[in-house]
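(Protein data)
===
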Amino acid sequence: MGQWASADEGLRASGKATDVIKAVIFGAVVSAAIAIVIGSQGTSAGPLAIHPVAISDVRLFWSWPMFFSATGLFFALSLMQR
């Protein structure tokens, strides 16, 4: 019986890992979308700390506080759906 218990724990752990990966992806998409809209208007939005990032010839906007907040929100939503 101990063998089955360890297999179940591994499945649960990998489920949480996939939830984290999904949350990071959705957090990045939401953060980029909001940062582009607000950043293109020329503001940093105060506590959101939106700043321009230059990658090669492309200028993007990014916000780490918004990324971590959105990732946490999506991770909590994925845990509530279990």
